[in-house]
Design a protein that fits this description.
The chain has helices at residues 18-32, 40-52, 77-96. It is mainly α and 97 residues long. The mean pLDDT is 87.
């Protein structure tokens, strides 16, 4: 019996859609206008962006990480990988937007 090797074609944030870029721009504009990142409207928009990027519920929101940041030391290694994934996605969003 032969086994096929499967190549993953997707995953969180692999393909950043134009809608995701637009949601990211809207989030940034709201914060630049003086809205707090904890404001309900920003959180709702960040949640839409989270879903658009295909991130899982345990991934941090893109607005909660810094593009040049690091995963917190107190997180277990599996959560640090999730955090680093979102940091990389945020960096790509900032390049595009």
């Amino acid at each position: 019996m032969s086994r096929r090797k499967r190549t993953p074609i997707g995953g969180p944030g692999r393909n950043i859609s134009p809608r995701a870029v637009e949601l990211w721009r809207q989030c940034r504009e709201m914060v630049q206008r003086g809205c707090s990142e904890d404001d309900r409207s920003v959180r709702d928009l960040a949640g839409e962006l989270h879903r658009e990027l295909g991130l899982r519920p345990w991934h941090p929101l893109v607005v909660d990480v810094a593009a040049d940041g690091e995963a917190p030391d107190y997180l277990p290694p599996s959560n640090q990988r999730d955090w680093l994934t979102v940091i990389e996605i945020r960096g790509r969003l900032e390049e595009v937007a």
